[in-house]
Design goal:
Number of strands: 6
Mean pLDDT: 96
Number of helices: 7
Distance between the termini: 25 Å
Strand content: 5-15%
Oligomer: single chain
Largest sheet: 4 strands, mixed
Helix content: 40-55%
Shape: globular
Strand order of the largest sheet: 2-1-5-6
Order of helices and strands: EHEEEEEHHHHHH
């Protein structure tokens, strides 16, 4: 398998999940500015031009981070990266995956946009993101992971996106539950190996 990624982007979650499942894969770095890789034009891999993208051993391609995470978990149930089909816990995990993807991830994307002024970003963070952080803090104050004591792919995605605020000048140090979660995640071998592979501290 090949995982197409850009350092520090949302592909980190997929890489963490692949390592948690014990899978072998090759990392292909995407230059986001030029949309190229060592293989050539990234648009030839996916016309979306976004990361992550996962090229399967049979040649098929998966895109969209939340979907890639579900595929990894479902294809390798022995890793217990998602609760079993039909369980209420599974839908709770999917609820969190969708929340991170649609609310938190997309909200944070605004903060990285060169098309949005700093004043607008500040107002957006105050009116939109702070409430998301407060919601996450309330949950993590009482739980080690999204599903309580059990790690899931939802944690990989949440950790990934919660690593972005310091990069855009958002201070989340005042959320102790989030800070404990981030520290706990940073101790997982899969996370440490993924950060090292992307040359991130």
């Amino acid at each position: 398998m090949k995982l197409y990624y850009s350092p520090g982007s949302c592909g980190l979650a997929s890489q963490i999940a692949l390592r948690e499942a014990g899978l072998e894969f090759t990392l292909i770095k995407v230059d986001f500015k030029t949309k190229t890789t060592a293989e050539g034009d990234y648009f030839q891999v996916t016309p979306k031009g976004f990361v992550p993208a996962l090229r399967l051993d049979d040649g098929d391609l998966l895109t969209e981070g939340a979907v890639i995470l579900q595929w990894i978990a479902d294809k390798h149930p022995e890793a217990k990266l998602l609760p079993h089909f039909g369980s209420r816990e599974r839908y709770k995990a999917l609820e969190w995956l969708n929340f991170v993807a649609s609310d938190l991830h997309k909200g944070m994307a605004v903060m990285f946009s060169p098309l949005v002024s700093q004043e607008s970003k500040t107002k957006f963070a105050e009116g939109n993101l702070i409430s998301k952080f407060a919601y996450i803090e309330e949950h993590l104050a009482a739980n080690d992971y999204v599903l309580g004591s059990q790690f899931s792919v939802a944690d990989a995605y949440l950790y990934n996106v919660l690593s972005w605020p310091p990069r855009v000048g958002l201070d989340i140090s005042g959320y102790p539950g989030i800070q404990r979660f981030m520290a706990r995640m940073a101790q997982r071998p899969s996370v440490r190996a993924s950060l090292q592979a992307e040359e991130l501290q």
